[in-house]
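#structure-requests
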Amino acid sequence: MNDTDSRLVRLFLTLTRIDAESFHEREMAQRLTALLAELGVRAAMDDSASKTGSDSGNLYSYIPGSPDREQEKPFLFLAHMDTVAPGRGKKAVLHEDGTITSDGQTVLGADDMTAAAAILEALRIIREENRSHRPLEVLFTTAEEAYTVGASAFDFTKIHAREAFAFDCSDRMGSYSETEPTLLSFTITVSGCAAHAGFEPEKGINALQAAARTIAKLPLGRPDDHTTLNIGTLTAGTGTNVVPEKAVLSGEIRSLIHEDALALYERTLQAAREEAERIDAAVEEHHTIHLTAYRIPPEDPALVRYQRVLSKLGVPAYSKVQYGGSDINVVRRHGIDGICIANPMYLAHTTKEYTTVSELQLLEQIVQELMLS
């Protein structure tokens, strides 16, 4: 199975040509709306743009079930419309061996256009072949790459499904994310007092000193086997001859246990307060919880259904621990059983990103079988 001139491949190549970096998804949303309309499916754009700062809202579609299955519960299928940078002027290259790459100047956009293309093609085939299916819901989100901003702003009271499938896990086909983390970003500002460093340094309070001592006390990297802590930036001062009045350190915590992420942040903040107090400086903090950790139990209905589909297709199932997060963090926070499923996007978030025709076609089969199950 390696039809490099199939309708599915052409659709994927078309979608990857559309610029859709995070918060700039409008053109992608317009194209997806038109493609759904060709299938007789109406896409409604929500008003989340006013909350997220994107130039587009999320796209939601409800597809009624066949007459013999219209009373069944819907399934929800998700893909995100945005890409990371560099994602402007993308040019996909289809190689003779069925590999698809960018031209090396941008990302390819397989993350997440393999998912969008597979969902659209599966819907088209089901319609063309008049296959019997339950009601279906499709959600294309904005700004997933910016900590699931779009999905977080979506009104999930519109969703009727109790099982959801997002295709946004970068691994071999058949994989799924067994767990995804809590992700907490923070900024801590230490305020001291400026003074001339040469004439009267004793009148100053060096905010940078307190910030540096704070960082030295922290267990950066992997404090334990399920948590990471990173200080990504430290900014301070206005010149070498001025005692720094302010120092701002920014970082993030990821943990597969939500409570551990909160506890580690409290430890970080306490260290800053202690070091500031030592030199009579002040501390202000701001933090945001972007994702909330979850773990998929073996009996999860969405997981069991996915495993059955893989078994039918002869594809081994694999679980993986993922520290990246996805829209499924949001879905499960709203009480919906959902899993993040592998799609063929390799070396994602780099200019070496690639996918393969055969695995793209396999993904479409998986999506179709889930829709029909």
